[in-house]
Amino acid sequence: MEKPADTQFPIHDLLSRRWSPRAFAERPVEPDKVQRLLEAARWASSCFNEQPWVFIIATADQLAEHSKLLCCFVEGNQIWAKRAPLLMITIAKLHFDHNGQSNRHAFHDVGLAVGNLVVQATAMDLVVHQMAGILPEIIRESYSLPAGYDPVTGLAIGYQGDLQALPNELREREQASRSRKALPDFVFSETWGQNPNYLRFEMM
Predict the structure, then answer these.
(1) Closest by alpha carbon to 74, among 20, 140, 132, 145?
(2) 3-state class of 197 per DSSP?
(3) How far is CA 132 from CA 39, 72, 125, in A?
(4) Cβ neighbours around 101 below 10 Å, total
(5) Which of 14, 30, 44, 127 could lock onto 112 through a cystine, CB 3.0 to 4.6 A?
(6) Backbone phi and psi for residue 99, each to the nearest 5 degrees, phi listed first
(7) Cα separation, 92 vs 106, whole angstroms
């Protein structure tokens, strides 16, 4: 099942094909593809090249580790994420190494790294579902996070599976159409709420 984006302007195929399914096949993610996902994340840009991201990962072939990481997700996400062969938690380092000051861009930069990972996944016919529904305190305790590191998101990664494996409610959400705000809703120029001339022209 594919759900390409209904774009207003042409974008790269990898971006239009990317979406966040919840149905995963039992097929494992090959080790070389896991390496390539993490390598893509490694080359994301970051403020002062701090690279403030940490990834905690678990694969389904290591059942105890997979279960441990799954327990760091909220119950509603565990229902479907348990089928994903590769699970991740993203962590942000909150201070710069070079001066010890707070890095207010850390979460932004973790997002850039995950963005790279997601595009790389799409290029390899993998799907990624990112989730905010994680349990930060469980993560801190389970993985002994040091001070100055914050859990950010969870990731479920694998090959897309059969919708019939999902409960009815999730199956309906899986089949729902995708939507985004229109560009004039969030692209401004000169003052808040005013769209650039070229955008107003294009959207007429």
Answers:
(1) 132
(2) helix
(3) 23, 11, 23
(4) 8
(5) 44
(6) -140, 0
(7) 6
CA distances (Å), 61 to each of 11, 27, 57, 137, 189, in order?
37, 11, 12, 26, 51
The answer to whether residue 203 scores a pLDDT higher than 60 is no
Of 118, 102, 113, nearest in space to 19 by CA:
118
Nearest in space to 158 (alpha carbons), one of 203, 114, 128, 122: 128
- The structure tokens 């790389």 sit at 120
pLDDT band at residue 204 using 50, 70 and 90 as cut-offs: very low
Domain presence at residue 130:
yes
Tell me the C-alpha distance between 96 and 103, whole Å.
6
Structural domain that includes position 106:
13-163
| Structural domain total, the chain | 1
Residue 126 corresponds to which tokens in the numbers above? 């993998």
Average pLDDT (35-48) is: 98
Inside any domain, residue 178: no
Nearest to 112 by CA among 184, 23, 52: 52
Residue 92 falls inside a structural domain? yes
At 49-61, the pLDDT tens digits run 999 999 999 999 9
CATH number of the domain bearing residue 153 = 3.40.109.10
